[in-house]
Amino acid sequence: MSRPIAYDPRPGWLGWVSLLSLLAMTFAFVTVNLQIYSARAAFIASHPEYVAKQPPTISRALSDPAIGDGFAFWIGLSALLLFPAVSGVIATFASALPAVRAASPGGARRLVAVSVFLPLLQLGSCIGMVMLSQYTFPDYNDEHMFGSYLFFISQAGMVLAGLLFSIATARDPAMAATMAEAGVYAPGANRARLWVGTTSVLLSLGYLGLFIAKGLDLGAWEPFVYLVYVSTEPVCISFYLLFGLLYNVDLARAAFGRRAAVQGV
């Protein structure tokens, strides 16, 4: 009998898809965060007369072409990378579907559901990113606001769906163990997603409440509410991105993990 040889039962494309998704997710996380905070900072520095009246939103900051033009390029590029990044995460998880189906039929159905709906939500988010960055105030108010609504609704839906899937996976030991054995799932990262995802959903609800409240007659509270509103906006986006970034741990495991089994021949 010859010596046993190590083999990897996972599909051959899994390693490079996971690695490319990891790189794209990291690029988008760094770039989008850098752009949203630097855009507001640049507008505040360049337009003290406006800031003296009220703090700027990201949308208002983009009305300055010196800020908006660069923002449009980098956010558009990030949007182009985020869709394949998220699709790569889904493909990585879905590679374990045959094993999950055998261990947990309910878990397999959930995995199929997120494999269908999450890319659609991410596509909506990416389209919104392109629209809000390419169409800016004051010439394209309606187009910009549509893109902004599309981004926030789609991205909040993405995080909520991902959070529910993380909760369901954590409560399904057979599914979690099977995906971990397949080398595409890191339990520690999933536990972190439970906290970050929950915080992100709560922030989204708070941001929606502030969005509604800022249009009301709040009297002396109006400046404070508006300040909290504009400050919550970039934090919401950062938490959306952080939730996605936590999948890098799973992607790294799939890309660089050891071979999963040994077979004698």
Features:
265 residues; mainly alpha; 11 helices; disordered N terminus; disordered C terminus
Fold and architecture overview:
With 265 residues, the chain is an all-alpha fold. It is built from eleven helices and two strands, in the order βαααααααααααβ. The protein has helices spanning 14-46, 48-51, 58-61, 65-94, 97-103, 105-134, 141-170, 173-181, 187-213, 222-245, 247-256; strands at residues 5-7, 261-263. The chain is elongated. It starts with a strand and ends with a strand. This is Frag1/DRAM/Sfk1 family protein. Keywords: Membrane, Transmembrane, Transmembrane helix.
Radius of gyration in whole Å, from Cα? 21 Å
- Helix and strand sequence: EHHHHHHHHHHHE
Query: Which regions have little confidence, pLDDT < 50, spanning 5+ residues?
Result: 1-7, 259-265
**Biggest pleated-sheet summary:** 2 strands, antiparallel
Number of helices: 11
Strand content: under 5%
Shape: elongated
Ends apart, CA distance between termini: 7 Å
Q: Going across the biggest sheet, name each strand in turn.
A: 1-2
Number of strands: 2
Overall pLDDT score: 93
Helical content class:
over 70%
Question: Which secondary-structure class do the elements indicate?
Answer: mainly alpha
